[in-house]
Amino acid sequence: MSEAKINALVSPEGALEILSNHEVNRLKDRSEGGLYRLFRQCALAVLNTGVETDDCKDLMEAHADFDVRLVPQPRGLKLELINAPGHAFVDGELLRAIREHLFSVLRDIVYTHSIPQTIAGFRRDDPDDITNLVFHILRNAGVLEPGRQPDMVVCWGGHSIGHDEYQYSKEVGHQLGLRGLSIITGCGPGAMKGPMKGATIGHAKQRVHDGRYVGITEPAIIGAEAPNPIVNELVIMPDIEKRLEAFVRCGHGVIVFPGGVGTAEEILYLLGILLHPDNADLPFPVVFTGTRENAEYFEMIDQFIRNALGDQAADKYEIIIDDPVRVAQAMRRGVKDVETFRRAMQDAYYFNWMLKIDPVFQMPFEPTHEKMRALELHRDQPAHMIAVNLRKAFSGIVAGNVKESGIRQVQEKGPFEIAGDPTLIKPLEAMLEEFVAQNRMKLPGSSAYRPSYRIVSGAV
């Protein structure tokens, strides 16, 4: 029996959105330079909140008849949804959380594409301008709260995890919530949902009424990782690099649960930044954690990091196995250290301006077969540059796994090829094979994983 589809006229949740005629026309524009296709894709992903899929292309094709239109009103703006998924409604009414997320999508897409035109002299390749753009998007979304004590813990981990790992991530979130800490994740299912769900219970027990569950995503991946229902602040950044910068700028510490290539990409991004000499004395707590059954997984990750980046990279994180209380206590202490440091340095609590991010981590990487084959995976470069190029390798695999453009490239030209120094790519190949064996590449129950990559022998 096919799912019912619903047509609806939706009013904004909260303040009415006010758009200029130019902005409305860009959102309606179906040409290559218009925003209609991007807006429709993100809106459809939000309407599929709670539906487990990790294939953006499949999602778009399954709802090919879905449409979203802007309906200007004398007092603002409404959205007309045509053939919207029925599971987004209760008794014909759109779920309130989904309605909030829909207008968050509208807000961020419009703002992201208008701000470069409004900032005098804005350059897309200037590091300071990129950081300022990240700041402006987060501020416009209401994520940056001046006066609030540091309490934001970033939780990274796989969307494709088993029941026991999910329950563990939820218990860690519960312990964080009991200590008054709030959660930022990539907003999807699995280890992105578990900590938020646990924290809601911890916050309820402590009567924390302003607990925050921030989800930060980007257009190319939102269809594969639709926002989970607990997210109460959704932000869509323009690309993966600005998404990653948003995590480390507004988070006060990071917890990493087991995951696949996306989690590995995040780890390498974070360690590459923390290895910069300018960040040597900057407190930033990082904890890797999982169940007792995950101990070998983190041994593998630890060995991979030490081999690729050196023991100094391993000094940047702590591994805690099967102990949610200890994880939360370590993070609470670490966040307190961040607060003390920021106060002494007179740096903002809500945005980490002092964190040095090398421009090579900020430039968008759009994977193609040529770019993936040309990655500089060799040891004749600083550790942070090895981290940069390994991150790009993982980013390309993520694209081939779940992003519409990457999936199409792999379908048309075959898997992305990755080559380089055998001492780097052999451990990489072994780790990727382990991700596949542990079903960390696809959601449980989905079709068998077909690799979007191929490791080739020999240097570039």
* Total domain modules: 2
Helix content: 40-55%
What's the tally of helices?
A: 17
Straight-line N-to-C gap? 52 Å
Helix/strand/pairing class, anyone? alpha/beta
CATH topology category name of the largest domain: Rossmann fold
Our estimate of the beta-strand percent is 5-15%
CATH architecture of the largest domain: 3-Layer(aba) Sandwich
The gyration radius over C-alpha positions equals 21 Å
The first-level CATH class name of the largest domain: Alpha Beta
Most strands sheet: 7 strands, parallel
Strand order of the largest sheet: 9-8-7-6-10-11-12
Number of strands: 14
Low-confidence stretches: none
Shape: globular
